[in-house]
Design the sequence.
């Protein structure tokens, strides 16, 4: 067995490729897998999230190297995002390979809980199922702070006046770019300030916006006399600006939440007017979490007794602390038939956990919309004819005697709500030596998930540790954790999270000048585990 990068009596952290490390872990040595793998969407250009990077698969598998839609995807051309069907199949095959290893490493009845992307989740879920897991559920994590990455169709139409004209411009641009020895991504970076698909667009179907023309012209020594006026003509009239958040996908994903000003422009052609208001993407508002279970050895009861796995810790994950106790009457038969004794259901410590979980901001918005609601009693209607012949608690009541604690609050009280602070210097996103992880999950959400599927004192396996959120969650919940991460630069982040819970002095040493981690030490109220 290769030496771990870090080990103590609670955590083992391996540095390496997931498939190589998993192959070395013994059978039936983990109680639960809780993980957040790459989604295969080439997130923000990160190589570790490229679907095409997930192993060999040839055209013999029936896929194609062409992305969906007629034209190749600009981001794919720019090397940022491979959306071909072969790449997606490779992603699924890779998910299948690591899920198969997880199945072997889990005890019978052990759960696998894995985040997925809303566009690639079907591949993940099918791979987990094909590996031998029973898909038990899918949890939806809902949030309100996502930002749509959508093409403005009307604008795209306005940007292509005269296809022949544009073809000539594109040839000129390509020729000047080749002469300068620059790639399209290089040109985009120097002109618009980022390695986007901008230059690809200009060489395929759009004139550049007028504001980019001077920089493009000067960089590639292009013909201003011929093209300057054409580009100015194609420009849409600016009718205002709007402010938008820059958060690209989900809370914790991508750049810091920062407001940017975007120009609002008016259509300049009839065709563009017709397509005003059309786009290509919805605002991201949820992330799916796949819940699978390794087949049981016998019944649930037998499996739980022998292996400690197979069930969910409902009571440890209840929502809020309101009482849901309810007195029921078992009625067999109609209208006064055999009536057995009363029995009681529910709990004094909160509601049954749901398969929908909310981000705090979204929960607040929801509560504002619904206002204060009351459940468990309906005093105005009780005693009416309608209720006289009703069954259960309501039967024959002349006056309202609420069957359970009449809870009140906004609609969000029916769902688990998790706080998330996306700012880079907040405790949620540690930073060590200037490095922070781009896709950090909320710590409280990870605590809830590990608590749901891990028996007391059990071992959680996290094959894609990232900044180590699952590791920290496992420590806070009293579990052991085996974690894997391939990228060297993220290992100190995981170490810092472990140190924070186990050795705060070491955490301070690791933090150095990075206020993110110092904030992390003082922000949270949990004691060192
Ligand atoms: C979505 S991130 C996990 C983020 C984590 N949930 C957090 O809160 O910080 C996925 C991680 O998997 C790692 N990864 C990707 N491919 C891997 C591989 N083949 N082996 C091991 N780790 C890999 C990436 O480096 C990345 O840090």
Sequence:
């Amino acid at each position: 067995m290769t030496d771990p990068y870090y080990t103590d009596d609670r955590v083992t952290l391996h540095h390496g490729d997931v498939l190589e490390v998993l192959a070395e872990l013994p059978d039936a040595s983990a109680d639960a897998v809780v993980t957040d793998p790459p989604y295969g969407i080439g997130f923000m250009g990160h190589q570790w999230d490229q679907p095409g990077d997930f192993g060999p698969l040839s055209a013999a598998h029936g896929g194609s190297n062409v992305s969906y839609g007629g034209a190749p995807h600009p981001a794919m051309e720019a090397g940022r995002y491979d959306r071909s069907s072969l790449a997606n199949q490779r992603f699924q095959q890779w998910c299948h390979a690591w899920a198969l290893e997880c199945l072997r490493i889990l005890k019978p009845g052990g759960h696998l809980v894995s985040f997925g992307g809303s566009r690639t989740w079907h591949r993940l879920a099918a791979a987990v199922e094909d590996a031998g897991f029973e898909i038990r559920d899918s949890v939806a994590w809902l949030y309100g702070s996502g930002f749509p990455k959508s093409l403005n169709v009307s604008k795209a139409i306005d940007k292509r006046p005269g296809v022949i004209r544009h073809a000539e411009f594109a040839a000129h641009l390509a020729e000047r770019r080749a002469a300068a020895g620059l790639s399209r991504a290089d040109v985009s970076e120097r002109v618009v300030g980022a390695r986007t698909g901008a230059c690809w667009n200009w060489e395929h179907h759009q004139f550049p916006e007028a504001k980019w023309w001077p920089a493009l012209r000067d960089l590639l020594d292009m013909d201003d006399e011929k093209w300057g006026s054409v580009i100015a003509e194609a420009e849409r009239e600016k009718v205002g600006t709007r402010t938008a958040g820059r958060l690209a996908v989900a809370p914790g994903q991508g750049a810091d939440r920062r407001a940017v000003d975007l120009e609002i422009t008016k259509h300049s052609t009839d065709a563009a007017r017709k397509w005003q208001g059309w786009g290509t993407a919805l605002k991201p508002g949820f992330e799916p979490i796949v819940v699978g279970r390794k087949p049981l050895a016998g019944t649930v009861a037998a499996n739980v007794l022998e292996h400690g796995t197979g069930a969910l810790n409902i009571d440890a994950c209840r929502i809020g602390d309101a009482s849901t106790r309810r007195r029921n009457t078992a009625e067999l038969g109609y209208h006064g038939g055999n009536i057995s004794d009363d029995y009681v259901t529910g709990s004094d410590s909160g509601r049954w956990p749901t398969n929908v979980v909310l981000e705090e901001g979204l929960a607040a918005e929801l509560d504002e919309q619904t206002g204060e609601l009351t459940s468990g009693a309906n005093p105005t209607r009780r005693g009416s004819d309608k209720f006289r012949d009703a069954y259960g608690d309501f039967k024959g009541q002349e006056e309202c005697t609420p069957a359970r604690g009449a809870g009140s609050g906004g609609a969000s009280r029916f769902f688990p709500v998790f706080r998330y602070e996306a700012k880079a210097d907040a405790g949620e996103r540690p930073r060590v030596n200037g490095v922070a992880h781009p896709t950090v999950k909320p710590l409280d959400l990870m605590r809830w998930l590990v608590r749901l599927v891990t028996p007391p004192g059990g071992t959680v396996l996290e094959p894609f540790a990232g900044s180590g959120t699952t590791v920290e969650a496992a420590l806070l919940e009293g579990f052991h954790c085996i974690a894997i991460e391939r990228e060297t630069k993220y290992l100190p982040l995981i170490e810092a999270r472990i140190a924070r819970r186990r050795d705060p002095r070491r955490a301070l040493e690791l933090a150095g000048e990075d206020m993110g981690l110092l904030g992390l030490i003082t922000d949270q109220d949990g004691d060192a585990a």
In short: Residues 17-18, 36-38, 48, 437, 439-441, 464, 466-467, 469, 484-487, 490 surround S-adenosylmethionine (CB under 6 Å). The chain has three domains: 6-61+83-143+286-300+418-523, 153-274, 321-351+373-407. Residues 153-274 form one domain.
